[in-house]
Write a structure and sequence with these properties.
Elements lengths: L12 H18 L3 E8 L3 E6 L11 H5 L13 E6 L4 H5 L1 H9 L4 E8 L3 E9 L4 H9 L1 H13 L2 H9 L2 E2 H5 L1 H11 L1 H12 L10 H11 L4 H8 L3 H14 L5 H13 L4
Antiparallel strand pairs: 1-2, 1-5, 2-6, 3-4, 4-5
Helix pairs in contact: 11-14, 12-13
Length: about 270
């Protein structure tokens, strides 16, 4: 697959200039250095607008996009408003790839608004390279102004968004389905926190369980028999019985009762 887009000149170039002019006013008022917007769908289609990058003519290679895709898969996202002074968050700084990203960037504060729908996540972000507590308070006290800007941005530039949608990357096709899911999951902060909890419970291996094994555990906990589980996951009763025995071994369980107790612990840890 060609990971590069051919140079493209848009008939909508004036739309980008319009966004940049309006964004400049907002950026100066809030002491931001950068504004971006991206959408990622449940099936992995991803596009990005970044006012620091000339996406009018070049959408760049996959690294241009993937540097922004650390833990943005819709499965791990929710609608939220977040402000973060990045270098004061020890957990984020300890995440190797995130730390490298911060080191390569000049900003030390980001403010983001994420909106999750049934099919996708839309995220708007603003960066600042000179964050202060006063600036953070000012941002939080004037969120309404930023939301007005975002509503204008989304509603007034349909031709620009048509172009972005047509140029979207399908990330699983580039990275491979399994690698894509594992990469996003492994860098998701909630996943890392969950992994620490699992380790404390003696489940250091739990993140290596396949989705099929997790489904068998969920159904076993609910009281389904191997035959019933097999009919739901399109496997034979014997195959499910073997899988349950394998899971008992992985989870260090001597009986089905212990296995169900382990399932309950995993569920409380947010893993099932």
């Amino acid at each position: 697959m060609n990971l590069f887009f051919e140079p493209t000149v848009l008939a909508t170039e004036t739309h980008w200039e319009s966004v940049r002019r309006c964004a400049k006013i907002i950026l100066e008022r809030f002491n931001f250095n950068n504004f971006y917007y991206y959408r990622i769908t449940n099936d992995g289609n991803f596009f990005l607008y970044d006012d620091n990058t000339d996406v009018i003519r070049f959408l760049g290679d996959q690294d241009f996009h993937l540097k922004h895709v650390y833990y943005c898969h819709p499965r791990y996202r929710k609608s939220e408003l977040k402000i973060e002074i990045t270098r004061e968050n020890p957990f984020l700084v300890q995440m190797e790839e995130t730390r490298r990203f911060f080191e390569q960037s000049e900003f030390n504060l980001f403010f983001q608004i994420s909106q999750k729908s049934e099919t996708a996540v839309d995220e708007f972000g603003f960066h600042s390279d000179n964050a202060t507590d006063t600036q953070a308070r000012f941002i939080l006290n004037h969120v309404g102004e930023l939301k007005l800007f975002l509503n204008w941005f989304l509603k007034s530039h349909s031709r620009m968004f048509d172009f972005l949608r047509e140029s979207a990357l399908h990330l699983p096709s580039i990275l491979g389905d399994t690698f894509y899911e594992n990469r996003i999951l492994g860098l998701d902060p909630d996943s890392q926190i969950r992994a620490l909890i699992l380790k404390d419970l003696g489940f250091e291996f739990a993140d290596n369980l396949s989705s099929g094994e997790q489904e068998v555990l969920r159904l076993t906990k609910k009281g389904y028999t191997p035959a019933q589980i097999g009919s739901r996951v399109f496997r034979s009763k014997r195959s499910i019985e073997h899988r349950i025995e394998s899971l008992k071994s992985k989870l260090s369980c001597d009986s089905k009762v212990e296995l169900i107790e382990r399932c309950e612990q995993l569920e409380l840890a947010g893993y099932l």
